[in-house]
Amino acid sequence: MIKTFKIVAVLEGFSYLFLFANMFITKNINLELYKSILYPLGMVHGLLFIGYIALAILLKFKLNWSFSTFLIICIASLIPFGTFYIEKKYLRHENI
């Protein structure tokens, strides 16, 4: 399950960055292009975000994370590059 969480963390981080990049790039372009790119990307990011939080909750109990560690891991999903930091700092030492 930790391997799945690592993969979801990295994918969620990339989807967050792609969402922001596309939002700024397509903001001044045709509205139809804006909708056709951002809606699917937003849906994918939303699903990855929900998966990240759900897996974090499951791993909190499985790995006996403290509440502060769990809170940091959850808050990192709201910050750009946050999930990459979590994967490097908190998940590298976990067994795959």
UniProtKB/TrEMBL annotation:
User: Where does the source fall among the domains of life?
Assistant: Bacteria
Span-the-membrane segments of this chain are: 6-25, 37-59, 65-86
Keyword list (alphabetical) reads: Cell membrane, Membrane, Transmembrane, Transmembrane helix
> What protein am I looking at?
DUF3817 domain-containing protein
Signal peptide annotation: none
Segments forming domain DUF3817: 3-91
Q: Where in the cell is it found?
A: Cell membrane
User: Topology versus the membrane, per the UniProt entry?
Assistant: Multi-pass membrane protein
Source species, please?
A: Flavobacterium ponti
